[in-house]
């Protein structure tokens, strides 16, 4: 959830191998960073990030980091970007920087119609690749609803176009993932389904939604997390995992372009259900050449 840290990331990676799976792409999610817009490893949680990255690469993993178009207002980055016009402004608040409410509170937002913001953001992503060897990025939260009618940008465009500009950032990187794109079909980017809950209603959406994504041009598609990726499904009283649901979800994912685990199957499944997961992965392994072709 919201406790990414070096010790647990390495523990999880080693557990993948020790439980009989091959290394794949490891995504380190939100809170690896110091703050939104402060795109560097939090030194209190990742005391030796280069050493960690080298270890993961040595095990055979590629590593992606979670990023978003938001900037925390109490940061040097906010002050610098605001002074240079790199942030969206609010027409309802005398042209001050827009404070967008999203699932993690209120943040300023990059104005990607302004080259200042684009160059700054890509500069930070390039820095992470050069300094630590990061392989790619999960670019989250670029949904059109985070571009309301009251925004002022350097170039006035539609909310969907703002979303498209965020999607173009990832085209530079060989590994990327999005959950919100507009008119980016046929481009070299991964479009995943929107977050699915851990229930039997949402699992029925996987196959039709994936087919629809393919029909509108997103060939490199991902059906969200196995068992559901909607994070609140795993909190509090809701945290009652259905082992059959996780297996059926994995079976749906098995021959799709990508299959993506989050909750570790060896941690939450009994031996019968875990064996079923391993069979899915074995079947997928036989079809990898076809999928890649």
What is the 3D form? globular
Total number of β-strand segments? 13
Major sheet: order of its strands?
1-4-9-11
How much helix, percentage-wise, in residues?
25-40%
Q: Determine the strand fraction and express it as a percent band.
A: 5-15%
SS content category:
alpha/beta
Radius of gyration: 20 Å
End-to-end Cα distance = 34 Å
- How many DSSP H or I helices? 10
Largest sheet: 4 strands, parallel
H and E order:
HEEEHEEHEEEHEEHEEHHEHHH
- Mean pLDDT across the residues is 95
Unreliable spans are: none
Keywords:
alpha/beta; 10 helices; four-stranded parallel beta sheet; three-stranded antiparallel beta sheet; 293 residues; 15% strand; 13 strands; globular
Report what the structure shows.
- The structure is a single chain.
- By secondary structure, the chain is an alpha/beta fold.
- Helices cover 39% and strands 15% of the residues.
- A hairpin with a 2-residue loop joins strand 2 and strand 3 (38-41).
- Helix 1 packs parallel to helix 2 (49-59) and helix 8 runs parallel beside helix 10 (271-292).
- The chain is globular, with a radius of gyration of 20 Å.
- The model has no long low-confidence stretch (mean pLDDT 95).
């Amino acid at each position: 959830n919201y406790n990414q840290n070096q010790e647990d990331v390495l523990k999880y990676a080693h557990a993948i191998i020790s439980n009989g799976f091959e290394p794949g792409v490891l995504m380190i999610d939100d809170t690896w960073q110091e703050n939104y817009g402060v795109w560097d490893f939090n030194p209190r949680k990742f005391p030796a990030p280069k050493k960690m990255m080298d270890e993961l690469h040595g095990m055979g993993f590629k590593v992606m980091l979670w990023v978003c178009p938001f900037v925390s207002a109490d940061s040097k980055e906010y002050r610098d970007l605001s002074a240079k016009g790199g942030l969206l402004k609010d027409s309802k608040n005398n042209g001050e920087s827009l404070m967008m409410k999203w699932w993690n509170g209120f943040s300023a937002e990059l104005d990607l119609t302004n080259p200042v913001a684009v160059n700054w953001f890509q500069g930070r992503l390039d820095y992470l690749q050069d300094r630590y060897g990061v392989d790619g990025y999960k670019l989250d939260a670029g949904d059109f609803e985070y571009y309301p009618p009251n925004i002022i940008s350097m170039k006035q465009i539609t909310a969907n176009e703002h979303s498209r500009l965020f999607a173009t950032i990832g085209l530079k990187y060989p590994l990327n993932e999005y959950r919100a794109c507009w008119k980016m079909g046929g481009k070299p980017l991964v479009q995943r389904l929107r977050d699915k809950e851990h229930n039997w209603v949402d699992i029925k959406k996987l196959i039709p939604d994936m087919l629809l994504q393919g029909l509108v041009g997103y060939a490199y598609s991902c059906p969200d997390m196995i068992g559901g990726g909607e994070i609140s499904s795993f909190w509090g009283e809701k945290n009652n995992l259905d082992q059959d649901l996780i297996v059926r979800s994995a079976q749906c994912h098995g021959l799709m372009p990508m299959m993506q685990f989050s909750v570790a199957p060896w941690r939450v499944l009994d031996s019968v259900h875990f064996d079923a997961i391993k069979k899915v992965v074995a079947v997928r392994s036989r079809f990898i050449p076809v999928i890649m072709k």
